[in-house]
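chain below, 193 aa
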Amino acid sequence: MRKLISFMHISLDGFVAGLNGEMDWIKVDEEIFDFVGKRISEGDTALYGRVTYEMMESYWPTAADKPSASRHDIEHSKWYQNVRKIVLSKTMKNTGLSGTEILSDNLADRINEIKQEEGKDILIFGSPTTTHSLIQLDLIDGYWLFVNPIVLGRGIPIFTGLQKKTELNLLSTRQFSCGVTELNYIRKIAITE
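prediction:
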């Protein structure tokens, strides 16, 4: 069974963005890009909320075509163009979107169907509102977190609306030279599935 994994940068105090969605505190560099690029290149499905999808769609399809494109831009642009994209949205329509499908209702049933299909892990990129909805529906199997060395004090928390305790197993951890620490967790219940 495929697993649904949330990929998120967070502050040390558990926020994914500032109160107004600011993410200027997130540290990324070539070391992180290389590490993340290898991991996501193994995936075949990306799940986004509408806002994150629109942000991605405005940049990644043509990022590799820019004269100043970095190696990361070229590699991620190619991956983005080929990956299956699923967007959770009640307002978007699925017209003219190549390689993209919109889910607007029956989320638990539809996502569980996708998890049963042949394929690799489904990665949720950013999308805090979507992540909150999927946490409440008890659909997330793992958390791939990049803890930034900053305390925001206030902001949008990663975990909100939890209905029950969720036990996790730490699969891996890595310290990056910029001070970010990767923590890769899987739900204990997902290990047996």
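The chain is about 30% helix and 25% strand. Residues 4-57+85-191 form a domain with the Dihydrofolate Reductase, subunit A fold (CATH 3.40.430.10).
thats it, cya
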